Amino acid sequence: MTAVLIFTQGPRSGQRLELENELVIGREGAAVTIEDSELSRRHAAVRPVDGGVEIEDLGSLNGTFVNGQRIEAPTRLAGGDSVKIGQSILELEAAGAPATVMSAAQAPAPPAQPAAAPASSGVPSEPFGTYAAPEGMGRRRGIASRQLLPMLLSWGAVVGTAVALAIYFADH
Description:
By secondary structure, the protein is an alpha+beta fold. It is 23% helix and 27% strand. A hairpin with a 2-residue loop joins strand 7 (64-66) and strand 8 (69-70). The protein is rod-shaped.
């Protein structure tokens, strides 16, 4: 029997990932690539181990979370565990679970569709009061935050040069 990870949220939502041997998940140069600016190039490794599956963060900037907790070492996964990497959430399919896990999770949605607003309007399809915002993971550290310090240093150099020139020409 092979273990199966199911993408429940993110760019690959609804896709299944069968684990027969170790897979590296990342933004580029990995066995499983995901278009996500919050992922490192080689973000995490998922591998089958004796009687189960483990996941290891490969030194990513934004971290890997299992059931909401950031992991620091290889961590064993159990059926139903949730893994968050970047914008993606994966769930380990429990042993013996039916192959139609995704369609079973979507089955309650059709009765609510006639009463709900169209999906393109940005309104959640769930009835009022059932939608909850995702839990915050703290400060996001994406590309923009990495560019803030160089930008401030550049502007400091420009302002410093302007002041030095103003002083020089005021004396001459």
